[in-house]
Amino acid sequence: MSSRKRKRESKPAKSDLISQLPDSILHSILSLLPIMTAFRTSVLSSRWRYLYKDFPLRLSDYFFNLDTRPPHNRLHMPDPVVRDPWFSWLRMAVFSIFNSHHGPIEILELSLFFSFEMDRFVKTAVQRGILELKLVPFGFGRDTYELPLSLLSCNTLHQLSLQSCRFPQALLPSIFPNLRELRLDSMPLPNDLLSKCPSLETLVISTYYDGPSISISSQSLRKLVFHLDSTPTELIIKNAPNLESLMLADEATITNKLKVLDAPKLQRLGFINANVRAIQLGRTVIQQHKESLKSLPPTFQVNVTPCRMNMLSSVKTLAIKMEHYFEKPIPMILKCFPGLINLDIMKYKGNGDKCYLDKGMWEEQGSLSFLDHLKTVTMKGFWGDQCDVELLRYLVVHGKVLQTITLLCSKHITKNFVDIKKRQICIEKRASSNLALVFFRDTKENVHFSLWNDMIYY
To answer: Are 228 and 248 in contact (CB under 8 A)?
Structure first.
């Protein structure tokens, strides 16, 4: 035997330190891996052969969603699903995972399965303590998937996302006992659903099709998000004593009437479109005159009666979307929020370039009460037009504690442009000595306002 061979045989083998870890730690490691990678570890050695059967299972969207299909072979119609080899392979893989796995199921997202398959997966997930569940039924034709009663009574579920599903007609007296977050897309909201969910804190509603109005009453709800751009609906916040955040799609208050009747803890509100159709905050109502709906600029009326609630003064952060056709309702809207601290404005030029500005409009307002508290202003879509300048000048001259005005500019920024705008805004006459005026080039233009859109469309 050669000396090289003897040396190689006498060298001790490297110990596998990871495999020496206890099962609980290895389960935690496996739960952080992509699902297929975790299951492939079963072929490493006898030590790893059965570990995958007991670790917390997280079957999420990257594995089950339609978008995981190869782009050249993606299906858009449900009919050929059964015949498609890719879907058949995926279905077999999922069934194999479920049949062999015996541990808890923490996250499950299903978007490729039929009614009887959905029932099977949902039942298994409930039995194993599901925490997060997303259902996007596929292949139901005109029928939507009816949620099983076992899911409605699941006491481990914290997050639930549903698309094109339906609730049973007769709901239990109490459902989803520990559900914190509910997202509904393309499906109705049962009238008594929220009152039966004792722990619900976040509700997201997209593409609502059922009925002329949505009425919200909930003792536990803290965050409410509406994605209602085009459906003509009346949104009524009737009784929400713990609601802190109400977020609306950019165009929601143009096509929808908004009524916030009782939300005494509301702190964040937006977007309020300056071309608002009708909005009621407490007992303050702002709406367009009917005869002016097709005219430019439109005229607005404000009806104010004594308000018994502190809801309006509780709002600290407000987002407004405005076109310079519709400057006139802005002072009316701002008067409704005397405790405002943060003001976010999304500007867009609209179809025309003409600015219907009443030059004396802002001077007539005097020093509104919210200016005693306003600290930050962010304007997205700043072009430096006269409408923008007049509004900013008013805030600068009267904002007593204003700290920062951030302007996201939709054009190239030069030193000359900045100097001119500072002069026009009268920065030297600022009421707050700590005020900083900051200019940024906005590369995303007006299609995305991350301060709000990331929270609304998440």
So the answer is: yes
d(CA 180, CA 202): 6
Q: Which helix (H) or strand (E) holds 38?
A: helix 35-40
Residues 52/23, Cβ–Cβ less than 8 Å = no
pTM of the full predicted structure? 0.81
Instruction: Check: CB of residue 156 under 8 Å from CB of residue 129.
Output: yes
Residue linked to tokens 């702002």: 286
Q: What is the pLDDT of residue 398?
A: 94
How far CA 148 is from CA of 171, 196, 285, in Å, comes to 11, 16, 42
Pairing of strands 284-288, 300-304: antiparallel
Task: Please name the helix (run of DSSP H) or strand (run of DSSP E) that holds residue 260, with its range, or none.
Answer: strand 257-260
Q: Strands 223-227, 202-206: parallel, antiparallel or unpaired by DSSP? A: parallel
Q: Cβ contacts of residue 131 below 8 Å, gap of 6+?
A: 106, 107, 156, 157, 158, 159
Mean pLDDT by 10 residues, the chain (458 residues): 52 65 78 72 73 70 42 36 57 71 81 71 89 78 77 95 88 92 88 92 80 87 81 82 92 82 92 83 74 57 54 89 73 88 85 58 85 95 87 94 93 89 93 94 73 74
- Judged by DSSP in three states, 249 sits in coil
Both tokens assigned to 305:
């009666």
**Which residues neighbour 20 within 8 Å (Cβ) at sequence distance 6 or greater?**
none
CA-based nearest residue to 243, from 216, 266, 275: 266
- Give the C-alpha separation, 303 to 281, whole Å: 11
